[in-house]
């Protein structure tokens, strides 16, 4: 368990102040970011999308304005924004370390790790337009293409590249496409984010363009999304209307590479097993191959992941699961799965509830009941799941949840997570008066 240094009365570095404020241990990357005042370069003028920094004096406020309480997970501390509601956040770990950077998307609350350091995340932002799958962007709605921003390597990006020079990041600058993606994975730069790009690229079909299909005025959008996810389910007359006559249906289906998608998801599930999208695509890949047992195993792993980690719109699984339902749960129900474990059975029954708001309410109650009987470390994780497994109903519930999360984190020695949860609680109170 890492313990933050306690600054002396004369100490005034930003690192000391932030570590004292959040009782955390900043990574060297973050210390340099604050103490060398690199954040001043993130003034909105760089070519990256996430190019506006939160000044550290605002970050250590009692209720930082950048925090979106209840919507943003309570171990996230936002430090960079694209000024459109999306954030790069530092995620505070159970051992009080602050290093991993995640992208949090306000449109639905999805999040995905962009790196184990700030330099990785900034570099990924700098090059992601050159990666496969970039048309279905992390921060722009699916189907939006192009990025006309200036991509010159300005001070922010030069700093990130210099921090990654032990991984020869400067050698990657001329690369693009699969070559760049493979090189980043080999050098362990933003692996989960790059693998997600590769999965999207493997399942993207350039012959079935979104704009052409939307022009058909199809009256069953969920059926269309299922066909875009698995092209074998696409109506043949839809294909005929958007594909040239000299292209066979088999040629259309061959554009999807499910073997590659499965390979990338296996790697992602090993690197970051908490990410739902990897288990979802793994499970479906096995299901479409007729391997029901393997599919169920993967979907059960997906059940343990927050719905906010499934990237449903980007990987197009949202056509299967309805409002506020996990893809993994929807597929397990379709396959007739029945849990034998009593705890899993209780959770699964909550997921069967038809009403999205009632389902969230029951899931919250399920994990809250388990948390009340658990040891501190497990209780903390269960209280977090009560709030962010599906999202809690009603919104008022987050007042108690954040308090219980802070109490359990304190009891487990997770001082950083406790302090940040209390900060989110302060923001919730200031924002909503609750």
TrEMBL record:
<dbReference type="InterPro" id="IPR011990">
    <property type="entry name" value="TPR-like_helical_dom_sf"/>
</dbReference>
<protein>
    <recommendedName>
        <fullName>Tetratricopeptide repeat protein</fullName>
    </recommendedName>
</protein>
